[in-house]
Hints:
By secondary structure, chain A is of the alpha/beta class. Chain A has helices at 43-51, 91-101, 107-114, 128-140, 158-171, 185-188, 209-216, 220-227; strands spanning 5-14, 17-27, 32-36, 58-63, 66-67, 76-79, 146-150, 177-182, 194-199, 202-208. Chain A is 32% helix and 27% strand.
Amino acid sequence: MDSLLEVRGLCKYLDGQIVLGACSFSLAPGHITGLLGPNGAGKSTLLRTIAGLWRPDGGEILLHGRPISRRDRPKVAYMADHTLLPRELTVRQAVRWYRDLFPGLDLDRFRAVSGNLPEGEPVSRLSKGQAERLDLGLLLARDADLYLLDEPLGGVDPVERAKILSAAAGVMEDHNALLMATHLVHDIEPILDDVLFLRAGYVVLSASAEGLRQREGVSVEEKYMEVFGGGDR
Amino acid sequence: MKGLWNSAKWELRESGVLRGQTLFFLGLWLVYDFNAAASWNGSGVPLLLSLHLLTFTSLAVYRGLKWPFTGSFDLERTSDRPAWQPVLGRTLAWTVVIAVGAALQQAAFRLCLNEMRDVWPRIYSDGDQRVAQLESWTGWVPFLVITGAGTAAYVLPLAVTLWCRSGRFRHRATMANAAVWLFAVVVLAYLVLRSIPLSISIPACIGICLSVSIWLLAYKVE
């Protein structure tokens, strides 16, 4: 199967220190991949670099086999671990702002994912859960090839978490892929197709979740504990 | 070109300039200005009549420093909008706002000038000089110079802030750092450029800052 995203030898230095060290991996279309690793592993840096916010110091990022040009940028939809929407705008205005930036939003899908939000309320006054629903609704309403989610489950209750995961899984089609960074391995395990373990900026494992279960007889969470030193397996 | 228009439109909405309460407050303030100018006519009147312009210019400086540190700046960079559109769109938006401030100032000066010609020479020993100075601030040329200077007051902080977000310590840059650098650049620019006529230094400042901002945004900023 041709890969949708291919990352080859991606390096990133911040303040002279290696944050990403020659990361190489690929994402298959139609797959949800969990980007897992402890704090400071470089997950957010990797997502920000793929999204084009940070510039690689080495290596290349290929989408459908080609470097991501400016025109291709909207095909990569990025959601940060905090809302990037203008905080001064109301929810209604923020949706219009986002639609001007990324035309062709599927508003039905947006409403289905975000649920009821206080439309007249400024973004700055939304609760963490509401802001995440707004961000996720807008992100998934885009017709992107690659969705990048940085800690979308942090700070939301289990019911909200289940809704977010179900929405993320619901948007997946054969032509797109989703890469999600999180600490909550147990929660996302049911929807994962692949996993990518990152430690100190290096990819230490890139495998299929089902393969891990069949070949090694371990769940993703157990493998995570084994690799990152918390488990006795 | 749609990106240019959208950048300008949303910059004004994000800044709060187009908010109903802001416009209402500015309207009331305008009425107060004219009333105060007509009834008082003291030496503080020119400043009072320029307060809209000063407010708009201060807001432009603040937005120039703030925008590169906002989430919307990052999100905009993940879109297919070319770097010149957000920079030029925002600059045009602030040029229009500052031009409105300058136009209000001009209108106020013209409305009050006759009364000042009458009153100032009677209450100040240098009244005629004061009137002549105020007259020199009215007309198309001062309007264009003031609007140009206001635009430069937006693009200079923008260029400095984008430079802060492109330099060696870009990942630790804050708005406070950018403000300190801006102060240093303004002092340096004043020392270097004070002998150059405004008709050259203002367009040069706008041209250089815009080019640098677009280049930094396209190739350097993180």
